[in-house]
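User: Here's a structure from my thesis project, written as structure tokens. My advisor, Dr. K., wants to see whether a designed sequence matches the one we expressed. Can you design one independently, without my sequence as a hint?
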């Protein structure tokens, strides 16, 4: 049990204060921006202009506590229990289809409500998928690099996870999980031919999921020319572009935007970047994007340090998390600016979403643990090969 010693003397000067600073600045900025972006919707739904902000604040406090707890957990714990955690996460995914437990919103079964608490299992699976594949890559690195079965096994498991998420339906989360997991396996050394085949099949699958579903295909058409139907399929994107246009270079002032006042749908979630630019200008939007990508690059840097110190779990996991957060940022901003088709992905640490905020906090807590063990040269126990997966 020594390798699971959760509490011992820490040298807190060895914490990554750059990552902590980026996380803190983004989290506090997100709360401030959300307080402005959610005021109309919050008052409309909850009869209180601060209700959504209060909920997000509670989730942030819980997430920060979770971050500290995940930092205290040794990496060997995750290498031992990753398969169990993935199995529990998969069962959680299935709960969305059980009447009375799963909650349907706008025709999508993406939420569960247990004991009065709401949870989005697909957000949990983003973390668990990256965690599992990172641990698998440590256990089966030789098979991944030399035999197709080493690549096929984790791919089959993740495809099963993605298939359930697609049924909900949630194409955005499925695509992010697919790319993030593929990225981890790529840096683990999977053969290029196998990687290209799976990447191609994944792209074909995503194309078919779009082409065979009329409302998804309509989104693609609207993305190409939103002004051709600005009051129907192109409504959300045209309002987003108008919001960005109003902001100009320096914005109309924090809290002074008007598009969030019932005009722009999802102003506090998927299109919060449009509100940021309207109120703080292009300069404010660029600053938030720079901070978010700075967060991802810092996590990449921690992954690189893990590789140098032969902490392979830290290497794979950090790269997976950095890719996951980077994809979320790229897609959310791209959608708001009309560069990508509309897809419901949040802006990390900024958009409203309790489960997403909690999971991002937990992921960063584990990244901080990776960095801490790197700096303290704490050995990671060899995991016995008792299971194929």
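Assistant: Designed independently from the structure alone:
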């Amino acid at each position: 049990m020594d390798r699971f010693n959760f509490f011992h003397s820490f040298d807190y000067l060895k914490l990554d204060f750059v990552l902590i600073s980026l996380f803190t600045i983004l989290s506090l900025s997100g709360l401030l921006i959300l307080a402005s972006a959610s005021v109309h919707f919050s008052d409309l739904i909850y009869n209180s202009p601060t209700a959504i902000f209060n909920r997000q604040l509670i989730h942030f406090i819980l997430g920060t506590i979770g971050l500290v707890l995940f930092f205290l957990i040794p990496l060997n714990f995750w290498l031992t229990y990753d398969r169990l955690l993935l199995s529990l996460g998969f069962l959680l995914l299935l709960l969305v289809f059980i009447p009375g437990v799963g909650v349907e919103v706008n025709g999508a079964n993406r939420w569960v409500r247990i004991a009065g608490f709401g949870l989005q299992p697909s957000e949990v699976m983003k973390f668990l998928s990256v965690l599992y594949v990172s641990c698998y890559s440590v256990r089966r690195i030789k098979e991944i690099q030399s035999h197709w079965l080493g690549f096929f096994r984790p791919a089959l498991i993740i495809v099963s996870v993605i298939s359930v998420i697609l049924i909900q339906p949630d194409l955005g989360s499925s695509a992010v999980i697919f790319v993030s997991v593929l990225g981890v396996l790529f840096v683990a050394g999977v053969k290029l031919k196998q990687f290209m085949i799976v990447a191609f099949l994944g792209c074909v699958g995503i194309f078919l999921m779009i082409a065979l579903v009329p409302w998804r295909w309509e989104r693609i058409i609207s993305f190409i020319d939103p002004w051709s139907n600005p009051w129907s399929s192109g409504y959300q994107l045209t309002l987003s572009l108008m919001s960005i246009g109003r902001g100009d270079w320096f914005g109309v002032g924090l809290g002074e935007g008007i598009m969030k006042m019932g005009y722009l749908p999802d102003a506090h979630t998927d299109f919060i970047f449009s509100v940021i630019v309207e109120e703080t200008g292009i300069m404010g939007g660029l600053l938030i994007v720079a901070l978010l990508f700075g967060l991802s690059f810092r996590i990449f840097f921690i992954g690189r340090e893990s590789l140098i110190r032969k902490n392979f779990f830290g290497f794979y996991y950090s790269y997976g998390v950095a890719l996951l957060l980077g994809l979320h940022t790229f897609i959310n901003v791209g959608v708001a600016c009309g560069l990508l088709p509309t897809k419901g992905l949040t802006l990390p640490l900024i958009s409203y979403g309790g489960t997403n905020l909690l999971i991002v906090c937990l992921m960063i807590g584990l990244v901080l643990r990776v960095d801490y063990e790197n700096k303290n040269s704490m050995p990671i126990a060899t995991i016995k090969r008792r299971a194929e997966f």
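When you compare it with your expressed construct, this may help: The CA atoms of residues 89 and 125 lie 6 Å apart.
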